[in-house]
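tmp note - hydroxymethylpyrimidine kinase
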Amino acid sequence: MKKYTYSSVLTIAGFDGSGGAGIQADIKTISSLGCYATSVLTALPIQNTQGVRKIYPIPMEAVADQIEAILDDIFPQAIKIGMVHTPQLVEIIVKTLSKYKKVPIVFDPVMVATSGHLLIEEETINTIVQKLFPIADIITPNMDEAAILADMVVKNLDDMHIAGEKISKLGCKNILLKGGHQQTSTITSLLFEENGKQSSFETNKFLTNNTHGSGCTLSSAIASYIARGESLNKAVSLAQEYVYKAIENGKDVVTGKGNGPLNHFFNPDKLIKNELV
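out:
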């Protein structure tokens, strides 16, 4: 009898009990794109659609133990890393992953809340650049995060081009600079590849508050498409399309009293079975 396996994606991220962002959004995304989702919890934020109330830390040893437990058993084809809010957390993740065979890593550098408040300290940002950027195959900052990384104001597409070039010199391989905060009817995101190639992705902007977790969703979608065997450029393109449709299909739904989630399951794939060699 033939044996099969699923394309697997590991998400290393924070919690969102309201189900729209963090590990919950990642698991929904990975699952809806036909991959098998595993997860490692990095922090326990107490939040809902209206915002974060408090963040409880997870012991560093517990984070390392979680990673080892998954990688020893269900080794992924891609890894997505989200909320890492302390230098110690960055270092333990990088150190633990270094014990295993390298797989593609998508890193979403969550640094700024929707409200504009900085979520992590300067020391953590420096550690991310020094330790996490070199092992990430692609990072996905939004315009606010790009402004921090490039140390400049990023308000429009011209600024994004300059910021992307600056961030490219920080040691990361590929950068998807997201344009969701542009004050225009059309949103343009920019992909800077390590070979020097640049690509742009344009979508229409929806008038909706239901974009909570869109960054988490995009990064885990990229990881999922990579796990399915797509090239980086194609994975980014398909992930952008998925997020666009997830927002479109959830734009008129009321979930909670604040910023609602995307509709991750607008057209889910079945789990993809690959023949075990």
